[in-house]
Amino acid sequence: MADFLENRTYDEIQLGQTAELQRTLNRDDLALFSKVSGDLNPIHMDEEYARARGAKGVVGHSLWATGLISSLLANVLPGPGTVYRHQDAEFHRQIYVGDTLTAKVKVVEKLPERLIQLDCSVVNQAGEVVMTGRAVVIAPGEKLRIEVADLADVSVRHHDSFAALFDKVRPLAPIPTAVVHPVDEVSLAGAMEAAEATFIAPILVGPEQRIRAVAEEHGIDLGGAEIIDVEHSHAAAARAVALIREGAAEILMKGSLHTDEVLSAVLDKVNGIRTERRVSHIFVMDVPTYPKLLLISDAAVNIAPDLESKRHICQNAIDLARTFGVERPKVAILSAVETVRPKIQSTLDAAALCKMADRGQITGGVLDGPLAMDNAINLEAARIKKIDSPVAGVADVLIAPDLEAGNILAKQLIFLANAEAAGIVLGARVPIVLTSRADSVRTRRASAATAVLHAHAVRQGLHDKPAH
What we know:
Blueprint: E1 4-6, E2 18-24, H1 27-37, H2 47-52, E3 59-60, H3 62-75, E4 83-91, E5 95-96, E6 100-111, E7 115-123, E8 129-138, E9 145-147, H4 161-169, E10 175-180, H5 185-196, E11 200-206, H6 208-218, E12 226-229, H7 233-246, E13 251-254, H8 259-266, E14 280-286, E15 294-297, H9 307-323, E16 330-334, H10 345-358, E17 366-371, H11 373-377, H12 379-384, E18 397-399, H13 403-416, E19 420-426, E20 432-433, H14 441-459
Parallel strand pairs: 10-11, 10-13, 11-12, 13-20, 15-18, 16-17, 16-18
Antiparallel strand pairs: 1-9, 2-6, 3-5, 4-8, 6-7, 7-8, 14-15, 14-19, 19-20
Helix pairs in contact: 4-14, 5-14, 7-8
């Protein structure tokens, strides 16, 4: 946008004079228009509702098109000082997220008292007419050149997915959870917060004296939680895994010890709880600018996964997405490009994973790849690159090429996009919650709630247990 707005006075305006602008409708526009106008018709907000009524997806407000006309009249022709008097409009087709609209006004008549009549039209990127009409305005009599005002930054959170997650878990019975070595404030408080929310029934495994000392020092109510006294973190990991094997616990929660120490006990060939699946970590991201939960894997366990490991990473993520109620999760296999390049291994892996899904080696989801990040999560980017895919632009799951890429992506969303991130490890006999000192109270609760929801799904047979 220009730094200044300059008008055209009544005397300057000529018959046939035109002006136009172009704008792409995105989900933020849709959300803000709904909020400001109070128009909460579900066809503008609920994709499933819209599709059930014959639309291709959520439908933009028709008045958004007239809003573009209003913008042209106020900013360009005639510009600042214009007074709107009349607008009629006829709408010819629906607008969808990702559509690029071109609005145009044309002066057709000059009337007394500085009245100007203009033809108005809006077309989409295919040249199809969206709206036609006519506007009457009072053109300015005084020449104006005005500096454009700075607008406040607006951040749109389309939903609160974690609140919905908590609502799902709240009526469920607490799941017995072995908490490994919770001997610092963060890990002990996290476990007891989840217990207080009735998500879990904690079994605290570690040096009892240290656990009680931490609770006393930081005012943490242990609430009668069972404590199994063991001397150190290594013994705590082994005993917690034994509780899983014995059926006394159905979730494992990391406390104040290294992740490697927990996973070493989990993957022990004799006494562990490994399965035929590769274990993998899944970030559950609530991103303000994305319309649904976004799962990212693997960003914390598998450093440089090979094709077979990526198969398991995909399957674990699909299982978790289905736990959240996504019937057929859309899985984007990420790379730097969206075409198969023999010199870029991640594109070859992506193509192979998609074919494995076709052959039933990965089940329950819809896979596509390679996809670059932009066209995996942005419909307009996918449209511009002419990617015809049920996944592009609407992914539920992002599969990173390696741990570094996944970790960088997740941390960018957290620290640059104000995303909240929960996460668990799947692939063992039970879900594993890996807490971090950087986690907020809310994200710790979300991680516990995710594990509980998944444990209940396994109890109910919604997922096949990985073979032992």
